[in-house]
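Quick illustration, no need to memorize.
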Amino acid sequence: MSLDLVTLTPAQSLGIPVALVGSVFLAVGAQLQQRGVAKVEAEPSERKRSTLGIGQLLALAKRPSWLLGTVCLGLAILFQLFSLFLAPLTVVQPLGALALVITAVLNARVTKVKLDGRAIRAMALCVVGVGLFVAVAALTTTTLPIQEPQLIAVVIILAVVLVAFGVCFGLLRKRLTRIFYVVGAGVLFGFVATLAKVLIGRIQTIFEANFRLVPADWLTLVCLLGLLAAAVLGTYFVQTAYSSGSPDVVVAGLTVIDPIVGVTIGVVVLGEAAHAPLWAGFVFVVAGVIAIFGVIQVSRSGARLHPDEAGPRQGTPEASAGMG
């Protein structure tokens, strides 16, 4: 039986540590941004709002913790884009799940709540599942030239998703729960990663045409607009989700849904696993189930250990922290 292994080049392999560094910045940025959002939400005039308003968004821009978190998330995006430039989407995208482990540890230290055995076991499952998935993906998947029909399919699916979330938000804003914002952000950022990978490939093609920059075609521009729209709406959903609890719960949802969407598109639409052997598909499913189960357990542990963390209160570490 042939294993049909595809070894990553040294440059492609570099995408793995780059993605891991991005996960660290993502975790730190999430912790800092949640602190800023929680403090803004704690203002007496804002406590009854179900979503972030214009005034709250402007107030966030004055919070050092939120601004520093935004810088960290910006760095996380840059590292993710660089990793996508280096390696296949199916290799680097699942590594974002490790941000959950870092976030859970950071949040436990900030809130002075010790992680119990259940949380530690859950984080171990997450690491094992993601590690196994990435190891097999690194050996069996590859980046293929993206054809125009594939890109059109991605853009059409994203348009439907944007309209669906936009309509739900516009009509049901006051009744939407935190899970809606977490799921919505995860789906949207999954498309952001996919479109970023597509754009990187098309920009490479443009520059490789006699090493000259030629005018971008209409489909590339539509792809860019879709990426920006998904990123803006996804970011707003994340900030709204932060306003009602600890960051590890939000990051847990994102690290489950974002990679699922990104990897599914990478495999089904972009064909990155087209030459992967049958056994690799089986391992992908098993590793994915292990990682998702671990992430869900970490999320439940966060909700159980921080049930009242809707915002800073007198006497809590967050309320007394020097950085606002």
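The CA atoms of residues 146 and 198 lie 7 Å apart.
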